[in-house]
Specification:
The complex is a heterodimer.
Chain A lengths: L2 E10 L2 E11 L4 E5 L6 H9 L6 E6 L2 E2 L10 E4 L11 H11 L4 H14 L15 H13 L5 E5 L7 H18 L3 E5 L2 H7 L2 E6 L2 E6 L1 H6 L4 H6 L4 E8 L2 E4 L3 E4 L7 E7 L5 E2 L1 H4 L3 E12 L3 E8 L5 E6 L13 E6 L4 E4 L3
Parallel strand pairs in A: 3-8, 3-9, 6-7, 7-8
Antiparallel strand pairs in A: 1-2, 1-4, 4-5, 9-10, 11-12, 11-14, 12-13, 14-20, 15-19, 16-17, 16-19, 17-18
Helix pairs in contact in A: 2-3, 2-4
Chain B lengths: L3 H42 L6 H8 L1 H34 L2 H15 L3 H12 L4 H8 L13 H25 L4 H8 L4 H29 L3 H7 L6 H10 L4 H28 L6
The chains are: A alpha+beta, B mainly alpha.
Chain lengths: 350, 285
Amino acid sequence: MRLEVSGIVKRFGGVTALNGVDLAVEEGEFLTILGPSGSGKTTLLKSVAGFEVPDEGVVRLGDQDVTMAPARHRNVGMVFQNYALFPHLTVAENLAFPLQMRSVGKAEIARRVKEALALVELDAFAERLPRQLSGGQQQRVALARAIIFGPALLLLDEPFGALDRKLRESLQLEVRRLQRRLRLTTLFITHDQEEALIMSDRIAVMDKGRIQQLGTPSEVYDFPVSRFVADFIGESNLIEGTAQGTEVYVPGFGALTLPQAPASGPVTLLLRPEALRLGAEAQAAPCRAQATVLETVFLGLSVKLRLRPEGGPDLLARLPLRPSDPPPAPDGATVTIGFAPGDIHVVPRG
Amino acid sequence: MSSPAADRASPARRRELALLLLGLPALLLLGVLFAWPVLRLLSMSVADGTLHQLERVVLDELYVQVLFESLKIAGLVTVICLALAYPVALWLTKAGRIGLTLGMFALLLPFWTSVLVRTYAWMVLLGRSGVINRMLRDLGIIEYPLPLLHNLGGVLIGMVHVLVPYMVFPIYAALLRIDPDLPRAAEGLGASRWAIFRRVILPLSLPGVAAGCALVFVLSLGFFITPALLGGGQVMMIAMLIEQQVRELLDWPFAAALSAVLLAVTLVVYAAIGRLTKGARLASP
C-alpha cells in the first residue's frame, strides 16, 4: 500500500528530531532512508510504525490517516535491528504469533507458517528456538514473521548491521528479490550508503531531521544536491573553486569551462575518485596538473591513491586493477592527473 | 627459573589460585560457623545409633500436622506475596525516575528494618485495642473488636509484609532483562496490551517469579519470630516447635531431627523449583 508522510515534526525536549518531513513510498517500491546516526531516521521509522506519535504532520497508509492509530492496528510488518524474535517461542511459534493475534484458524496458521518457512528456506528449523539459530537465520525468521500476515507496509530497521560482510551481501539480494516478488511496499532504514545504493528503488538522504535529497541511487550518487549528500554517499573529492561566468578556476588545475554557468563566486565541485584520470589518460584531459603520489592502498579489485597536486588540495583517485597489473605509480612519484568538465558535478551551496 | 611450558600454563592456574584465595575467607567462615554446627546438630538426631528420633517426627500425627501447617502457611504467604509483588514489579519498570526512587524507598526501608520491630508494630496495629480496631470502633463501624491478631490472618499479614520485597526484586530484575523491542515487536504484530503481557512479558519473567517464590517459600518455612508473636500460640510452625524442644523440653536430639526434616523439605523445594524452571522453555540472556 502507498505510504505518505507529510509535514512530520517530532521534538524530544529541546531537540527537534524531525523537522518537517515529506515523503511518499509508492506501492511496491523499495525506498531507503539513508542518514547518519542522529539524523532522525529512526524517529521517522517509529512514527510510521506507530511507536511514536509525531507532534505535527500526517502519516497516511493507502487512503487511511493512521497518524494516531496504535501500532497494532496499522498492519505494518517490521524487522528490528536485533530482530526482536521471541526467545521463548520456537521459529514456528514466532511466525504463528501475528496470525494468532488476527484469530486465524489453526489449520490456516499451520499452512501459512509452512509456506513462510519455505519462502525463507528454513523448513528444517521450525521447532528450533531463536538462540539455536545463526544470525543470518534469525534475520530470515524476523523477515518471515514481518511478512507472514500480509502487511500493508514492510519496515526494515538496519537489519543487516549485525551480520558479517559476505552474509550481509547475500541477504541483501535475497531480501530484494523477495520484496520484488511479493511487491511489498518497503521502507528501509540504514546508515550504510553502499547498502542503500545496492537495494533501493529510491533513496532519501536525511540529515538534521530533514530529507536532504530524494532520488534514484544514481541520481543521489551522480548529482548530489548538497555538500552533505556528496560527502555522505560514496567517496568524494570536494574541490573548492571560484566561478566567473562559465569559467571555474580550480586551484592547481587552472581554469575550466563548464557547459552551464554556476552563480559567480565560490563553488564546490564534486569529483568522484573513479573519475579522476591518471597518466596517459590524463594527457588528453582539458584540466591537468602534476601531482605527487602520497599513498597507495591496494583494494583487490582496484587501487586507491592519495595524490597532492602542485598548488591544489589533496585528491583521491581509484583505478580499476586487473590481476596482472602493476601498481600505477610508486609512492613519491610524480604523475599527471586530470579531468574533463563531464567528470565533475557542481554541488549547490547551502 | 621455571620452564617455558610452566610459564605458559601459569596464567590460567594463577587465576584459579587467585579465585580460590579470594573465596577462602568466606568458605572458612561458612565452614566453621555454619556447615560444621549444622552437621553437628544433624548428627545429634542419630546420635543413639538409631533412626528413632526421625521416626518420632514422621509417626507422630501432631508433628506431621505442624509440618503440614508450616507448608500451608509458607504456600499461602508465597501466593499472597506473588499476587502483591508482580504488579508492583511491573509498575516499577514503567515508573519514571521519581516513581522508581519512591517505590524503591518504600520497599527497602522496611526491608532494612528489624523483623522484630516490624512484628511489634503489627501488634500495635492489629491488637484488640490496637490502632485499627480503635479507629473502626470510633467510626462506629464495629461494636466489638475484630480478631486481627493471634490467628492465621495476623500471621499471614506479618509474614507477607516482611517477605514481599524478596518477591519484588527477583521479578523486577527479570522484567528489566526483557528487551524493550520484544513488547514493541509484539504490538507491531497486532498484539493487544493483554496479549503482550500474556504471551511475551509473563513467560519471559517466569525465571524471576520462580526465584522469588523459592526465596519466599523457603524463608517462610523457617519463620519464627513473626508467627510466634502474631500467632499468639494459636499458630504453630515447625521453627517454633524446634525452639520449644531446645528451650523448654531440652530435647536436643528431637530438635535436631525436626531440623533435619525442615532442611530436607527446603532442599526438595529448591530442587523442584530448579527443575520446573529448567523444564519450562525460558529465555536465557
